Amino acid sequence: MGPVRHPLPVACAGAVLAGGQGRRIGGEKAAVVVGGRTLLDRAVETVGRVARPVAVVARPETALPPPPAPVADSFGTDAGRFLSAGAPEVWLEPADAPRHPLTGVVYALEQAEGRAVLVCAVDLPLLDPATLRVILIAAALAPDAPAVVPRTGRHLQVLCALYRPEALDGLRGFDPDARAIDVVEALGPAIVPFDDDTPFTNVNRPEDVTAAERLLKVSRR
Asked: Which residues are in the MobA-like NTP transferase domain (predicted)?
């Protein structure tokens, strides 16, 4: 028997969802500093390791920190219109769009020119490229799935998932009062189980910053 050949990760664009108000943390989430770097900087770098091009999706009123430097990796430096002056392009959602977690997902798909999009919420400082590669390999094994979504325990991580253009029909016009998980489940996504939920740890409150920094120190040992 020959060696086992694993599928290559699906090629896709990346979108960092940075439109959160951050009321519980005292300001715009994208600018929150964890371990000496903003959440936006960390998210763009992490997504940029596995997806290219990468864009930042935000509300028109969102205050974003200075853009992070471009990521140097195997994707090369030509990222087309998604990069502007060496930084990720910023896609501003329509001002009248509903304030809902899935609004950014829909807008990213609409702007991605027919590409699959790996979306990532900006508030996941412990997310790593290896976790994202697992999602993209799972997407290669489920080519007909409109979305490929991680699951930790009973929770679907719908804001750190791959969405294909086929998901748009089911996402457009969603009920603004509906739970994001319910809307995505109705798409019939492929589910990727994860035993460890650490990479999907959210930073929502000041104490979450302290906890995340502690975990980052542990991971570096």
From this structure: 14-187
